[in-house]
Design brief:
Chain lengths: 158, 151
């Protein structure tokens, strides 16, 4: 879908969150300068088109105790990537899953899946679970745990 | 610093990670399902935001659909230069997040911009200013997930 100027103004007005008031879409409408019903219609349209992934609570993994953030990476034959990606996301605990180019010889992995856990033992068992699901499809894998967050901001539209 | 959450807070976090209604009184509608009132719902969400349990409450936008470009970048940074290089990388507003990870490729960050040309300029400047190679790994395919994280 193509976004017009009004859509962009709605995005800018809501990317940090909805106003926490009884009629939040009305408050957005006032800020953007269009009728409330138009804000709601446009947001429904953006939801349908996937411009908005979802609307609701965005938890902070760290605050909920999920300190073990692991980037699992897998070397999967190109023709098996679609199947492997489906199996990883079907596990239900992967937050992001992408195919990316390999960087030989430093980096043979082409499938990335993020996991989150409250302790190292659980994180390890999630990796084992994923490896079992990929049985036969992955030639090698590893998990890179984050040791420090150096920067974290959202993607911004100005 | 896990904040003490009561069962209603947990229910809000666990059930409202998507599907928040688009209507005139959405908090009232969402509150109804949890057996609380609209004002309490708003007050609890505000407190969860202030306590940092929620990083946001509202729409999650898919930046790809804005015509934006982003890539994941890895670097192998010598330990003694790590903080210096992190400062160079983080100074770019196009760098959305940056993590230290336990691997010889020990710095991983996302560069997001409205054009591939801007992404390329950032990568070139990072290489010039640090003298270190960058590994540019743009996403080739995304697998969709409907993750709900349990409070």
């Amino acid at each position: 879908m193509t976004l017009d100027e009004v859509d962009r103004r709605i995005i800018v007005a809501t990317q940090d969150g909805l106003p926490l008031v009884a009629r939040p879409y009305h408050a957005v409408a006032e800020e953007v300068g269009v009728p409330p019903v138009e804000v709601m219609e446009r947001m429904e349209r953006m939801l349908d088109a996937g411009v908005i992934r979802r609307i609701g609570a965005v938890p902070n993994h760290y605050a909920l105790g999920y300190r073990f953030n692991g980037m699992t990476v897998w070397d999967v034959a190109d023709e098996d990537v679609a199947e492997a990606g489906e199996r990883l996301t079907a596990a239900g605990f992967v937050s992001h899953c992408y195919q990316r180019p390999r960087m030989p010889p430093a980096w043979p992995y082409n499938l990335f899946a993020m996991i989150h856990a409250r302790d190292e033992v659980t994180a390890g068992s999630l990796v084992v679970d994923l490896a079992r699901r990929l049985n036969g499809l992955s030639r090698s894998h590893m998990v890179l745990f984050s040791t420090r967050i150096l920067k974290k901001t959202g993607l911004r539209l100005s | 610093m896990t904040t003490a959450l009561d069962p209603i807070d947990r229910a809000i976090v666990n059930t409202l990670q998507g599907g928040f209604p688009v209507c005139e009184r959405p908090f009232a509608e969402a509150a109804h399902g949890l057996g609380i009132g609209e004002a309490e719902m708003i007050a609890r969400i505000r407190r969860l935001r202030e306590d940092g349990v929620l990083s946001r409450f509202g729409p999650m936008y898919n930046a790809d659909r804005f015509g934006g470009h982003n890539t994941l970048v890895a670097m192998a940074v010598p330990a003694e230069r790590f903080d210096e290089v992190a400062a160079v990388v983080n100074a770019f507003p196009e760098v959305a997040h940056n993590y230290a990870r336990a691997h010889s490729l020990n710095m991983w960050f996302v560069v997001a911009a409205d054009s591939r040309a801007t992404v390329d300029r950032v990568l070139t400047e990072v290489q010039e200013r640090t003298g270190l190679p960058v590994y540019d790994m743009p996403k080739e395919r995304e697998f969709h997930v409907g993750l709900r994280i349990e409070a």
